[in-house]
Structures are given as structure tokens and as C-alpha cells.
Please model this.
Amino acid sequence: MKTLIIGSGPCAFNIAVEFIESGNEIILASREPTQPQGASYAGKIDPAHIITDAIIVSCRGGAGDFTVRMATGGKTLSIKASSIVISEENEKKPNFVTYGLKPAHGIVSLSSLAVNGKLVNASVKKICHDGKIVFLTGIGYESNPLSTEEIMLAAMTLQKDRNLQTYILTGNLKVAGKDLEKLYRETKKAGAVYFKFTNTSPLIMQDDDGKTVIELADEITGLDFKIKPDLTVVDETLSPSLYMNELADVFGLHTGADGFLQTENIHRAGVYTNRRGIFVAGPSRSLLKAGDCLTDSANSAILAYGIENGGNKPEAKAAIKSGLCVRCLTCLRCCPYRAIELNAKPSVIPGACEGCGICSAECPRGAIFLDFPDKRDISDVIRQNRGDIKSSPAIVAFCCRRSAARAKELALSMGYSLCDNLKVVEVPCSGFVSVEHILSAFRNNADGVLLLTCHEGNCHSEKGNLFAKRRVELLKDAFSQMNFDNERLEIRTMASNMGREFANIAGEFENKLKTLGPQGLKKER
Amino acid sequence: MNRTGKIINIGELNHGRFKALPCSHDFCIACGLCSSSCPASGIDGFDPRTLVRMAGLGLETEIINSRWPWICTMCGKCEHLCPMDIRIPDLVRHIRGLRDREKVPGILQKGLEAAMKTGNNLALPKEDFIYIVEDVAGEIAEEPGFEDFRVPIDKKNANLLSTIHNKLVNTHTEDLKYWWKIFHAAKEDWTITSENWEGTSWGLFTGDDEAVKTMAGRIVEQMKRFEIKNLLWPE
Model:
């Protein structure tokens, strides 16, 4: 089996080379109409492994067994892959309009001036000695470290090799990237002059000669200056392309606030997406420098290798009892991992399921269960944990195994004494805790039930904690209608390092239950 | 925001004007720690950050003609706090040195010129100097326990040469006595010289490196001439 790499730019090709050099098979699906030529990676990839003019149409299956269909040159092609790495380039949009400018021979975009510090614009050669170049970046909007780096590299070349005076007119200068501060110092040493605008903005006028005249106030000295540059260079806004949005749809990937194919969830750190076996690298996950893209390619190679060899197996897998399923497709809609596939009936894709159990809690027919290797049934665990009828209140705490269950262990090892009658039910995700589970806890003598979930935005299943929250709200509402104390049910978020907080929350809850007294449904033994 | 109302054509500036200086002012990140720490900030609109920025832009005439470099007390607090290790007092001194000598403010240039010509800032003749120091020595000898006190002038092979601040032979003669009495009590083999005794060096304040060199050179010369082993240069 092989890895399918999707991308048309240098990052995707570098990833392909990384995979090949570490002995992995790849297929690269590029949107470019022709095979790459001239670039350093061109000779290292067998042209037979590069599909050009490829647009991904659909994807079925899961980690270890994906089937991806793509349109290429009027045909449709089907590719089998064990893992997928997406590394599409971003779209660059020059900010001419932002500065009230139109492109002209003396007004150009950053990428038409220089690529990696190499000048690619012929008109620069015509600018005579002691000519002036002005860069406009991030004034009135936030720029990014990629543009900053390109501007600084270009300024170095212009100052040192071409003996031209560069002026960098900037808002917040984005130097959050490896070696960018060093580069900034080097540009200053080479003679580049920076003007930073926080309270004022430069007055930029476009002349009939296709150049600009700029009047500006230097905010440090309060002096006014006038520049008539030979060339004005405008930076670009980098953003995910429309095609990247289409890929998100095809693969069912959650996107971040800025449209990249990765959310800010800590569980996606590195190259992870919400789907097992699908990785997102370089420009498709964030605005990254070339060096960071190389790290991503190595990381995705390691993870793809892991998938090839089985990968990290989740604790449990969802299974659908076919006799009960009525094909309502709730599972298909709520699965955060796209692990439900619709054939004649919905079925669980084994390689894709992460065993969170959200589907089993949501299924209105109770047709889905989590298949634990030890054949454990959480309902049994709840029954076994039935509260004793003693003086102290019986508490059942459903704890996510990634956060609250670890916090409880930490609380104990920190020496906190927890409530006498606390029963912890460890669950793979709080989204697995169904209304029935909670009611069952009360039926089995719990005086109070706690749901302890991951913090919002930090759920491995993205929304498992929100599902849990919604169920608790519904139940609390129902409890108050039934005249059953709804304070007996509580949901809190926590992280695995919150040992002290765990002890406090449990303690406060116990105190509250003591004031409320035993709940009325309690069965005598 | 504009201080002058004038728009400066940037093409007329030489941004590299002060580039060769070893003050690292190019690396200013405009954090403003210098200005917030400077005891002279705000006087006449002065603050070190603005001065550093003007030097960086090459606003040569403006800063040389400005009073700002002369408002600075060279205390060095700015330099101590600067996260980019910019040597602001060095920059200030350099700018001071660029001003036409006739326009150096106050008595600094007058005193320095006198020192260059006569060996001391007061242009005090040798005979007057000897008269004053012997007069002070005579007063010491009137004190009990110092009856045999003499001031050793131009003594060859002495262990210690002590330079003299010009104010000590002008308005503050009393202050000479403390050191001299200590020398006497410690049985130090000391001396002063009748010429080039001046310990101050106002070239330090006017940015005149050549004058500093000349003043220091004269002291070295005296050391050699009288074959003195050690130097006490309190100024």
C-alpha cells in the first residue's frame, strides 16, 4: 500500500521526496497540468507516480484502506492508499487595493519581485544606482511571517547586490519564525530603513508615471518625510484556496477559524486532522516557512509509516447491530472522524473509528455499542459502582479518559483525599455518556452524578464534550419538571493536569449533596 | 505629531551617515526603555530614543545643531537598560564632537582651550600655582601633629604622583588638605608637578578625542620625566 500526497507546490513535492527516500511508495496528485521541470525534486520522483491535472472527487474507506477518486484529463481514476497527506499551496492575493494602488510598471506585488530572495522582476535591473524601493506590508491589517521573510530577503539582495536603498513601511512586523529576528538585524545592517505605523498611516499616491509618491510621519521622531520610490512593492494576503475548501468537504476535515484544514484543538498539533490516516502538512495547515514545511513532511512520513503498520489502535470500536438500525443516519452525521460509511446500510469503517462512542449515545434506536477488547459494558460498570447506602452521599463521576480520569489519578498521587463514596466511571469520551447512562447511575443509588469532560475546543472528538453538555442540559430541564433536584447532576470541564481542581470539584459536589440529603428514588438493598 | 511643519525629502538624507560608528544604534527596536529611564527625558523635547532614530535616518544637521546631545548628562542609564546593547552615550559623545568648536556650549570649550594652551583649564601661571599650594601646605603645618608638613613639588623617583582638579587651586583649596594629610600620616612618598598638573579632561564632554589624548599624554610625560612609579588620578 502507498501514501497519496495531494498538492501542487514545492511542499507537496518535498514531502513526496521525503517519503521516497525513506523507502515508502507514493502517488502524488497535482493540479498542475504538466510534470514538474527544473526544480530540485523533479528528477527524484518517477513521473509514473505523479498524476497531473488531478482534482479529487471523492474518498471512501479509512486509515489503511482509502479509495480516492480523482478527475484527470477528462477521465476518472481510482487510487488505493493506506494514508493521505494533503499539502496544497495557499492562494496569494496582492494587497494593491488596500493601499489604493493599481499594478503598474513601478508598482508590483511581492511575489512578482522576488522568490526566496531571488529577484525575478526584470524592471529592477533598470533602476540605477542609489534608486529607492519601498515595501508596503501590514499597514492597517495583520501581515504574516512568510511575507516578512520574503520582503527581508529581497531587501538584503537589493541593498547588497544591487546597491539600492530599501524602505520597509510596516504595521506590526511579523518576525515570529525561525531566524527572522536575525534576518531583521541583517537587513538593518545592510541599510534597509524601517518605518512602523501604529497611530498614523502613510499617504500613498499613484502618479501617472506608474510610480508612487509617499508622504509619511515617522512616529518616533515626529518628523514628516516624502519618498518618491523607483519601485513600490506591495505584500500579499495568503489564504487557503477554494480547492482546499473542496478538499475539506471531500475528506470531511474540520477546518480552523481561518479556513486551514486543521482546527486549533491540541490533539491536532503537528500534522494531525480529525481523521485517522489523513495528515495535513505545510501550507494546508497554516502559514509556514519552508523549514517548517520540511518538518511537517518528516512528521507525516513517520505517521504514515505508523498507519501502514497498524498505527495507534483506539481502545474500543463502534459496532452497529444491523437488526436494530433503521438507517436514520444520525451516526453518519455525528461521527467526528467520518468513520461511518453508507452502503446498503450504515457501517463502521474499522480503520477510521476512534472509539469515542458519540454515535452510540446519539443513536435513537440504541443500535450502536462500543466494542471493548475486554467486552466491558459500561452499564454493568455503573451497576457495579452502585452507591452504598451510608452517611456520605454516593457520587458517580463519568470521567473522560484523556482528562478527568487522569486528573483523578493526579489528585490521589498529590495526596488529596477524595470523597468517601466516589465512584469513577472512566469513558473513552464524555460524548459517549448517554442519557440512559446518567439515569442508570441514579437508578443505582447515586445521590449525584458528575460529568467531567475536556475543556471546550480540546475534545479529541472535537464535540464530544458539547454533546455531553447538551444531554446534561436536557436532563436537568426534565428533572426540574419532574420535581427531582436538578442540582444532583453537574457537568464540569477539566484538563489532565488539574489534580487539585478535581479534588475541589468532587468535594464541593459532595457538600452540596449532603445539604440536599439522599435522593428519593434510592432502593434499599 | 509633526515638530517642524517641514516635509523632509528622504532622497536628500544619507541614512548610512553614522553607520560606521560602533554604537549599534542601527539595531534600535524602538522599545523606549532608554527614554523612560533617562533623567533628562522631556527637557527641550529631548529623549534618547528619538536621538537614536534620527542618527539612524541620517538626520545629520538636525542632531548636530540640536541642544539635545548637550542636555544628556552621560549617566549611562539608557545604555544599561537597552535590550539591544546600543551604546547611546558613545553616540551622544560622537555627535557632540561633530559640532563646530566655536558652538560648543558654555565654559566647556573655553576651559579646554586654556588647558590645551597652558596645561590647565584656569590658565594659571606656574608661579601662582606654586604660591597657592605652598600656602595651603603652610596652613596644614600649623595644625598639631603636622608641624613638619611640606608639599613635595616635582620630586624625582617619588612613589606616587597625584593630579589636581583645577577647582582645588581655585575655589576649593580646603579640599586639597584631606588627601595630603592622609599621605603625610601614611608616610607616602608622593609628589605633585608644577606643570601639567590638571587632572580634568573636558574633551570627554565636548567629544574631542584629540584633546583627551593630549591631556592624558601630558600626565604620562610627567610620570616619565620624574620617574614616578604610581599615579593617583582622582578626576
Notes: The interface with chain A takes residues 1-4, 6-11, 15-16, 19, 26-27, 30, 49-50, 53-54, 56-57, 59 of chain B (CB under 8 Å). Residues 166 and 172 of chain B are 9 Å apart (CA to CA). DSSP finds eleven helices and four strands in chain B.
